[in-house]
Write a structure and sequence with these properties.
- The protein is an alpha+beta fold and 606 residues long.
- It folds into four domains: 133 residues, Immunoglobulins (Immunoglobulin-like), CATH 2.60.40.10; 123 residues, Immunoglobulin-like (Sandwich); 111 residues, Immunoglobulin-like; 93 residues, no CATH class.
- Helices cover 24% and strands 34% of the residues.
- Strands 23, 25, 26, 27, 28 and 29 form a six-stranded antiparallel β-sheet that branches. Strands 12, 14, 16, 17 and 18 form a five-stranded antiparallel β-sheet that branches. A four-stranded antiparallel β-sheet has the order 1-3-6-5, with no helix packed on it.
- Helix 4 runs antiparallel to helix 7, helix 5 packs parallel to helix 7 and helix 6 packs antiparallel against helix 7.
- The relative contact order is 0.07.
């Protein structure tokens, strides 16, 4: 090999090494794009939004979330995730995108903005996506919702035209929560002060620092002094609905985990039990990490008041809340004299009607009227609330032919929104009776008159001379020692009665603590005295829970305790629903379940 060849080879090797050590840096590129699948949509129509990120040779980038303004976000709203890169050069490139589903609930022009890329070291904005506009329905000129011109993506002067989701968490101060940057639970009610029987909605949310989160409750909220109706049953999913919100400068996903409609049954300051659980969050993009936070909500208090006594209408029962609408229908418009016609009256209210008193004139000439006790049912309505319906029946028996006018039925109530009493009224339908008039003869009427059954205390007076017994010798001694004898006999009787009372008291305490005896008494009364039967059954379950202690093996105690909670909820629901012929078979079946469970517990305790 020649000298030139050896020299040229050395130069080539040196050039290769220099090229490897000194690579000319690639040009850094950051592109953000926001696009819509359509720029116009109808009211309530779902639209897809795509958020695209392109990175080339750019390290330490943080992608900020979009601001959807007053659009309703139907999917998870976190921004696209990009991996962390160290150094620069070598032409590294990342393309990623997220898609979201949104809809507008009122006509208008909605602006989606806020797409930015920020240098995570200096917090300097290095790229920004152009805002896009979605036109919903017939948008009024100049009406714009969202965008950068209004704070927090608000709607300016037109905000009142946009419906607010009642299940969305309130903005502002984090009342009802202890803040944790990883995640926490929050609880709240519609209003802090309610009237007896007024409906209030309780909600619990889970806040998570990432959209990829899971949660579980280890301690459910309790509501002493309230009847509660769950809006949805707990499932394996973390939450029923998801929202997005900026909290303390951090983007957080918020899920609705619990929701109850509550009706106060007693006045005073009510304290709800805390909600306790865990929130698990996954974050970190390509290099993922798992964070777990344990959260407990603070004590939540509610002030329950009774309506004022001034101006209270006659027949009002505390806890009856309106406004109330009444409807009355008869099973038929005509009948024969002596036959029974049933008029069904339905009362509907947003508040409690469990103690409502229906007022009707039952003393009418020529007709017999009887009012039943009625039953109460609940059904969900809009805005996540429930509607209370109470149904009563009027049994009408005409005693003479002709048109029977029954007047009106009244229901006094308290309107918490108007802060006043009112009376709901409905005119009862008239009936046409045909046939002979039912008339009682005078002799039968006289025999039924209780005044005719009174007799004089003495038939004839007999006067005799009076002579005191103390005037006789032996009788005088007997009567002198009689008080002492009676006193000693009375003391003996008192002692005997006290011992008998103490023995009976001990036996009664033992019977009250014996859950089998309590349930046996309840089972005998379920068909005749329903309220007392349900009370005894509840007491039997309470005594049984005390007995369900460490003496029962763990593998048996857990299933028994789970079944106990289900039985309690079933008893409460059936008792609140009220008595009716349709429920009698359900009551017997429910009591059969309770008896079978108590028998299993008794067998486990032996």
């Amino acid at each position: 090999m020649s000298t030139w060849q050896r020299g040229s080879g050395s130069v080539s090797a040196a050039a290769c090494v220099a090229a490897m050590l000194w690579v000319s840096p690639a040009h850094a590129i950051v592109r953000l794009t926001v696009s819509l699948d359509t720029t116009t949509a109808g009211v309530g129509e779902v639209v897809s939004v795509r958020y695209t990120v392109q990175l080339r040779d750019q390290s330490a980038v943080q992608i900020m979330p979009l601001n959807f303004g007053q659009l309703q976000l139907l999917s998870e709203g976190s921004p696209p995730q990009v991996p962390a890169m160290w150094g620069s050069g070598f032409g590294m490139q990342v393309d990623t995108a997220n898609e979201y589903l949104v809809r507008g609930m009122r006509p208008g022009r909605y602006v989606i903005s806020g797409g930015r890329a920020v240098d995570s070291r200096t917090q300097r904005v290095i790229a920004q996506a152009a805002p896009v506009t979605l036109i919903v329905g017939n948008a009024p000129p100049g009406q714009v919702f969202g965008g950068e011109d209004t704070p927090d993506g608000g709607a300016g002067d037109s905000a009142t035209e946009i419906p607010v989701d009642p299940d969305a968490p309130p903005s502002g101060d984090l009342s009802g929560a202890f803040y944790d940057m990883v995640g926490f639970f929050r609880v709240g009610v519609d209003r802090p002060r309610v009237y007896l029987g007024e409906q209030v909605t309780y909600r619990a949310w889970a806040y998570a620092s990432s959209a990829e989160a899971s949660c579980d409750l280890t301690e459910e909220p309790t509501f002493p002094g309230f009847w509660n109706e769950a809006a949805f049953l707990p499932t394996r999913e973390c939450a029923q609905r998801w929202f997005t919100q900026t909290v303390n400068g951090r983007f957080m996903s918020i899920g609705l985990v619990r929701k109850f409609s509550l009706f106060a049954t007693q006045t005073g300051t009510a304290r709800f039990g805390a909600t306790v659980g865990h929130i698990t969050v996954m974050s970190g993009g390509m290099f993922r990490s798992v964070q777990r936070a344990e959260s407990r909500t603070p004590a939540l208090e509610l002030d329950v008041r009774e309506p004022p006594a001034a101006g209270r209408p006659e027949g009002y029962v505390a806890g009856t809340i309106g406004p109330v609408t009444l409807e009355a229908t008869a099973d038929r418009p005509q009948c024969r004299t002596g036959e029974t016609v049933t008029i069904t009256v339905r009362a509907v209210s947003d508040g409690s009607l469990a103690a409502a008193r229906f007022l009707v004139d039952t003393q009418r000439d020529g007709v017999r009227v009887r009012l039943s006790d009625g039953r109460t049912t609940l059904r969900p309505v809009g805005a996540g609330r429930v509607e209370v319906e109470r149904t009563v029946e009027l049994l009408i028996v005409p005693e003479r032919a002709g048109t029977v006018s029954l007047g009106e039925l009244r229901l006094p109530y308290w309107d918490p929104r108007a802060e006043r009493y009112d009376v709901a009224r409905v005119t009862l339908p008239s009936l046409v009776a045909r046939g002979e008039t039912l008339v009682q003869d005078a002799q039968n009427a006289a025999e039924e008159d209780p005044l005719r059954r009174l007799k004089p205390l003495l038939g004839a007076l007999a006067l005799r001379p009076y002579r005191s017994l103390l005037s006789r010798g032996p009788w005088a001694w007997s009567l002198s020692i009689a008080p002492m004898t009676l006193a000693l006999a009375g003391l003996s009787a008192m002692r005997a009665r006290r011992r008998w009372t103490e023995r009976k008291s001990r036996e009664r305490v033992e019977d009250d603590n014996d859950f089998l005896l309590l349930f046996s008494r309840a089972n005998t009364l379920v068909s005749s005295q329903r309220d007392e039967a349900f009370g005894l059954a509840s007491r039997a379950l309470t005594r049984a829970e005390r007995a369900l202690g460490d003496d029962v093996p763990d593998e048996t105690r857990a299933p028994l305790r789970d079944e106990l909670e289900r039985l309690r909820e079933a008893l409460s629901a059936s008792r609140f629903a009220g008595e009716s012929a349709a429920h009698s078979s359900d009551d017997l079946a429910l009591f059969a379940r309770v008896g079978a469970w108590l028998a299993r517990l008794d067998e486990a305790l032996r």
